[in-house]
Amino acid sequence: MVLCSCGCLATPITAGPRALTRLRRAGHFHHEPRRADNIAGAKHVAKLMNQYLDGKGTVALIEFQPGSMTNDQRKKGFTTGLKDYPGLELVADQADGSDANKALTVANNILTAHPDLDGIFGSNEPSVIGASQAVKQRGLSGKITLVGWDAAPDEVKSLGTGEISALIVQNPFRMGFDSVVAMVQHIRNGVEVKSEDTGIYAVTTDNMNEEKYQAILDPSCSNPPLPDDDPWLQYVQ
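Now predict its structure.
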């Protein structure tokens, strides 16, 4: 059974292993990703850092899995974005293996080596959670700009309390919803399946309670994070 994760789709599609095999043989199996643009999102992190630091300061990057496509795209976006802001200097770049405990150690090591550090970009969930713990332990909440990626409960909590300044948030609701819609349209009507950029959102302490961003942080069929002109809204409202 293939369903939108919240059960929004009006008509479910039976697609067990045998059905998927038949779809492949019939030429109906496609891999066209619905995902956010990691490079563009990480470039926006550099822009946020520049805004928060008034155009001048030292920053650090905590990677998660160097060599993985997602990690390297986010690193590329951030380092490329920093070139637009000559007042920002990248003074440290370390990886944590996508482990929050190791990210805590990495962040503490960076802060020890650079006691006057102004900003940290934690490029995935464990990276920013570990960094936020280090910031909190050192009594630096609100004194260091910490920008992270994703919107896990611990991240959102730290955003609300000020350890995290901003989060770059993807739209998994739309990824799942649009994927199912595309599959239905292709199977029933022969509509070509294409890849799609489902967008990124900069959620900050200041805007996190606005309806638009609450829909991203806590999506539901009653408050779906979909464009107002999306023709498929009729299925979730």
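The CA atoms of residues 104 and 198 lie 31 Å apart.
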